[in-house]
Queue: 2 jobs
Job 1
Amino acid sequence: MTKELTRQQYLDLYYFMRLNRAVEDMMVKLFRQNKIVGGLYSSLGQEAVSVGSAYALEQKDWLAPMIRNIGALLVKGVPPRDIFMQHMAKYDSPTKGKDGTSHFGDLENLHIVSPISMLGDLIPVMTGVAIAGRYLGQKIVAMTWIGDGGSSTGVFHEGLNFAAVQKAPFVLVLENNQWAYSTPVKRQVPLENLADRAKAYGISSYSVDGNDVVAVYTTAKEAVDRARNGEGPILIEVKTFRRLGHAQHDPAEYVPKEMRAYWEARDPILLYEKFLFSEKLLDEKSKKEFEEKIEKLLSAERDFAENSPMPPAEFAEQGVYCTGDDCHKVAPKWQRPIAEVTPPKSSVAAVWTVQGFGSGKGSGGASAPIHFGDTLKLEEKTESATDKKSKDTEVPEAVAETIEAAAVKPVKVAAKVPSKSAAKIPAKIPVKAPVNARAKNKPAPKKSAKPAVVPAKSAARKARR
Ligand SMILES: Cc1ncc(C[n+]2csc(CCOP(=O)(O)OP(=O)(O)O)c2C)c(N)n1
Ligand SMILES: [Mg+2]
């Protein structure tokens, strides 16, 4: 770790990492007391990722957290009580008890987009936020996180490619914690550095030690500044380790002991404390003060959450669908003159001509408007479309004759009609006809005393069934 931040910044990073861990420790207790509704995920050992990256954002910037980014919510200004109440499905929670974990946002004040469970989907969503901000002249950056597993979804690639081609002011933090449920990274990505995924989209990337909060912060800050300055999206891979299982239900016995021991020795908070002590930014006294401050805050926040009521039953049918203005008011906040991006400054012509694109009937011999080219005139179009439709549905003469014949003499015709045509015969033809025909024309197979010889393949197939 190198010293290049202000004293306050160093101490902020420490405070938020400690707060992140303490909030989650408290939730484990609440979970064991059966007060948490639904699953509980942990970011133990990954606090430097959420805190370091979110700390690089300005207040006006936007983020969308994933399940292991409670630290990012705290940095952005979400009070711990909201996190507790959300997990406890309380009436005063941000979603009024309608959803769990970190599935809530704040579009108005904190600029947080609620996460969605479908891994990767936040990438195009936050790209949209970034582009909208640019259009409105807000000079914002949008940030979200994705796991090593989530980086193998189709939408990760579609979203990042879209962000790249749009040069969106967007930063994607790829949280490589070595595991996706019980799948190790090497079993799902043939890359040493997941940052290399950026090469496919022609965008910049970084690979950074995710347990070094200063490294995460300084990298994220550089990326955020570059994105804000118009360099397009940036991918940051942070290498870290998921210390617990996927969620509370998972003891993660599949994790090799040596791997766990290596990462546990690199606890991000202990590493950082060591650095702060060596730089004389923290001592035993100030450390204790931080601990007391956090303890006091969290016990008050927990009490508030515990005292909040559960939602009334009749509330279940309210707020399920958006009803417009009485549900939420989302209006664009222009930070530039609208005239800059509206007519007559911007083009609104629905069609445009391209020299050399060709001329046709629709363009009267001139260069063709790109949408119309050589298309038919309206009357011709309508006529030919009708003709085509009737041709498509028309039964060919030969087949019609065959069908008619089959209706009269089912047995004989069925023997002649190839199976493909037989499939087209309408339902009014007796269904049993072809079966009877085969039965009459083919002699019944002789009964044999010998057991049938089953070819090896079929035997294996039968055995599998
Ligand atoms: C598109 C999609 N596929 C599968 C899942 C189920 N799922 C939820 S979390 C998870 C593992 C994610 O692993 P990773 O992206 O590495 O994140 P981590 O849990 O390690 O933070 C899976 C497969 C999902 N939510 N969305
Ligand atoms: Mg993972």
Note: DSSP finds 16 helices and seven strands in the chain.
Job 2
Amino acid sequence: MGGGILGLAVARELKARRPGLTVTVLEREPEPGTEQTGHNSGVVHAGIYYEPGSLKARLCVEGAREMYAYCERHGVPHERCGKVIVARTSAELPALDELERRGRANGVAGLRRLDPAGIAELEPHCRGAAGLHSPGTGIVDFAAVARAIAGELREQGVEVATRTPVTGVASGGGRVALRHPGGETRARFAVFCAGSESDRLAEMGGAPSDPRIVPFRGSYLRLRPERRHLVRSMLYPVPDPSLPFLGVHLTRHIGGEVSLGPTALLWPGRRLGSTLAWPGTWRMARRWWRTAAVEARHAVDRRALARAAAAYVPELQPGDFEPWFAGIRAQALGRDGVLVDDFVVHHTQRALHVRNAPSPAATSAFALARLLADRAEPGLD
Ligand SMILES: Cc1cc2nc3c(=O)[nH]c(=O)nc-3n(C[C@H](O)[C@H](O)[C@H](O)COP(=O)(O)OP(=O)(O)OC[C@H]3O[C@@H](n4cnc5c(N)ncnc54)[C@H](O)[C@@H]3O)c2cc1C
């Protein structure tokens, strides 16, 4: 369930393991891959940031390898353009050291420490006290990957049923039934990869209510074409280790554009009621209100966002940027107010529910799909 990159990768993995299996993907939108999968930075992460031993660390490193291999086999445009994480001042050096330690512990290949001259050699317009170069980080259009998987599935006779919003889940008699406007799909086992709706569907299927999804809007600016030469590959600031998904970065995209973003603004939208009713929302707000204020300023004030980027590319001016697209992160938040960091999967009687699959889940899709298929397989017999 869910025709994002993850749901499609799970269907592909199950079909590869058991060619005789009847697999169906249910997706509410008219096309697959249009939610988070189609609105992100497009970065194939190498696996630097994540706590060694976490699912993110293992599945990102494996997943990036498989993502490149898939793109090569299926002719999906991609590029290993590399990235530089920049410590703007010496105060950020301990955090850069920690990233390097994590990257090496996670088995990220080719990491190299840079001094200011080394940064300038790779990125002539960037300034910093030190840098960490990851040559294996790359770019791809994850929506194009999702379309390629959907095409492959259809060729194998797998139905990718679009415009099919699942509205109810029930299990009994060794089956799980998914209700939708076209009727009901009954299956021996279901894997839910529902992004922004994952908590609601998990609860319907009998999983605990904790954690809840809180949507964070991430908007991007893009560099005007005549200023794109200021960034050759990707430039990232050193993130706050307790909020690693924050920190606007400059990223080259497959189409040649260079983006600045994403911001991170709590964006309840249609989920306003459930977001406000969740105790974790208020606990998070009490803890992070200062950070939230900075993010809100970045989201509404293009100059503030451009100034953040000028801290490591001083030639950048607010007038160099124009508004671009936005994506909504489906981020899980615990009742205790803690943003869930790692990927989370809950098992119910006849289903698996992916409860938290934020970045780098697109990079990790094939590796995460393998883990989900391992856990789903006993339920297929
Ligand atoms: C701003 C931003 C930047 C990011 N940058 C990166 C990056 O650079 N690299 C990276 O690896 N990751 C990145 N990510 C994370 C990445 O996009 C996601 O982790 C990944 O796309 C998750 O895939 P998914 O299939 O779980 O989710 P989605 O793509 O959201 O798919 C979920 C699908 O379920 C469907 N669905 C939901 N409810 C129902 C229902 N009731 N019935 C039927 N269908 C339903 C939705 O329509 C959707 O198609 C970023 C995310 C954002 C938002």
Note: Residues 279-300 form the longest helix (22 residues).
